[in-house]
Amino acid sequence: MKNRFFNLITLSFALSALVLTVSCSDDNATPSEEEEQEVDRWITIAAARMGENPGDGNGGTLIYSLSSEDAKDPTVSIEPFDNGFIVPSNRTARLQASEDGKTIFNISYAGDTGGNYSKYTVNGGQNFVQTGSEISIAPYVGTAPRWIKLFDGDKTGAAVYVNTEHQIDDNGTPDDATDDTYLRTEATMGIVTLDLVNSSIKNFQEHSVALTAEEEANGYYISRIDMPTLNAAGDKLYIGARLSKVDPTTVERDSDYEILGSKTIVLDYPSLLNPQIISSEVGHGNTNGYRSINAFEYNGSVYQANQGDPSGSHILKIGTNNQYDDSYVFNLDEELGVTGAYVLAWRPAANGKAVLAYRHDGSAEGVAGQQGFFALVDLEAKTATKIEDIPYEPDFYLFQYQSYAVDGSEIYLTQAPVGKNGNIYVVDTETGAVTKGAELVNVEGSHFIGAW
Known about the structure:
It comes from Tamlana crocina. This protein is 9% helix and 43% strand. By secondary structure, it is mainly beta.
């Protein structure tokens, strides 16, 4: 089975210069070069093939692009699993797109090629042409990097990691472990910035990131970081953080503990120096997100989702003073009328209105995990409303969802339960109107992870 999969990869690269057919009701012709050049906005769909279990996405990632016009057309049908371009990655690829949708950026995740950066010009169908040179960021952040494209005109990417080590005082009696005293957990973060245009390393820094002395004495430490976000002034970088805890008396992992206020690491930019940690008094839980961008700059401030909050996920606000604005209270449990709201992925348009994927305590358990939903969010009004015009069922799994495509005030998303066909949907964030678009043809155990 492995040999067949690698043969498929080889075949895909050999055919990657070809544009395959988008099946339409009235035309099955391959687009000409003139037609390709007339497309104002490509929408790229990513499909994650099953590895060993339905919905795990570990069988590789395929991408397929179509025009925004075709993406809105329910008579169009695409088959990315059969006709898509295979993105180099041992597991689910970590993808980013240029703001105009005409370039796809990828850093391979895990395996022999893990940490390799590459970019592709989008030409429609499975026609993605690699441009520029590749570069590996593995020497800086490992072969399974957590990375993001900064919103600076598609110039810069940033990848991060954190390593942890428990510090123990043996009280001068190394042969008697009962006298060992837990001191703290050292968390060392690394961050590298990448020139996306010239495929080169811009900067790399490592720092020890410490919590307060009281928090560390109680066993808390930063265990994961992700989703660097540039502030409006362009002089600070915010990095989301997850906290974990050990029992100081045993140094065993503690799973039942008080959830502290949400925290973010703030660095000077572009120097990546002077790390500081800021804490929210409104939200509790983690801010690192998972597979999708978790924080966005809008109207001078940065808005950030948190996860694992005992009161349900919040949208938090970091002001121009680079501190949390605790006067901004946006609780999704209250707005959506649920308990245990958990933000899976979200993205605002330029008007401050966003589409947000979430689950909650009442979500049904499907074949791959808890069912997900979409909501329309207004950052200024602090409102969130479930989008009713998108069909839902228990196997609609959004935990690995990565991205939405934004075109003006419209946001494109994918809806397809694990192993079942679905559609592209387009949300007009100004009016809330929802358009059912092109059909997404699925295969057994697999799912779609977003639009770019």
